[in-house]
Amino acid sequence: MERYAPRARSDAYGRRINREHSPIVALALPWLSIILASWLPSLLMATALPLAPPLGYLTLLTWRLVRPGLLPVWAGAPLGFIDDLFSGQPLGSAMMLWSATMIAFELLDRRFPWRSFLQDWIAAALALLGYILASFLLSGATPATPGLVALGPQALLAVLLFPAAARAISALDRMRLRRWRTTE
């Protein structure tokens, strides 16, 4: 039977016989990927200008846009707290901004449930620019022209990284939905 229909026992998420979705992987992978992305910029080299984009926020935003409803609205608070610990921003700034982002995108999903990738990219770009500017202002820096100009490369890199982040999160989502071998 197998040689006549080799794909009869499998589907897009892997083999079906003796395989099941792992609830641990399905629930933990988005949270762990956001935490890892929040920690990753601390490994990059230190420069005088902020060049590394806020990868934790970008990952949160991408999970929210690629898979709406996967993360609860309240997820911005604990994940923002972890990002505050890693980034060195004043405690509570990312908690507030990430929670406001989750609420804003929940309202956006209610108003526009079907969007194209371009619309998601524009929404993510606006959210990223707002987050970078608000983080700059909440950090206690003086809002002068040189400081705002120095944020330009970081903001541009963050906006341009969104398609690559969406692609990576889609791959993680496929891994999240993969069927794993069971021993029953």
Q: Could you please describe the fold and organization of this structure?
A:
It is a single chain. By secondary structure, the protein is mainly α. The protein has one domain. The chain has helices at residues 23-39, 55-66, 76-87, 93-111, 117-138, 145-150, 152-160, 162-176, and strands at 10-11, 14-15, 19-21, 179-181. The strands form 2 sheets. It has a two-stranded antiparallel ribbon. A two-stranded antiparallel sheet has the order 3-4. A hairpin with a 2-residue loop joins strand 1 (10-11) and strand 2. The chain is elongated, with a radius of gyration of 19 Å. The two termini are 24 Å apart. The model has no long low-confidence stretch (mean pLDDT 87).
What does the largest sheet look like?
A: 2 strands, antiparallel
User: Could you say how many structural domains there are in total?
Assistant: 1
Shape summary: elongated
Rg for CA atoms: 19 Å
The structure class reads mainly alpha
- Helical segment count: 8
Order of helices and strands: EEEHHHHHHHHE
- Taking pLDDT < 50 over at least 5 consecutive residues as the criterion, the unreliable ranges are none
Strand numbers in spatial order across the main sheet: 1-2
Overall mean pLDDT stands at: 87
Helix residue percentage: 55-70%
In what range is the share of β-strand residues? 5-15%
Taking the alpha carbons of the first and last residues, their distance comes to 24 Å
By DSSP, the count of extended strands is 4
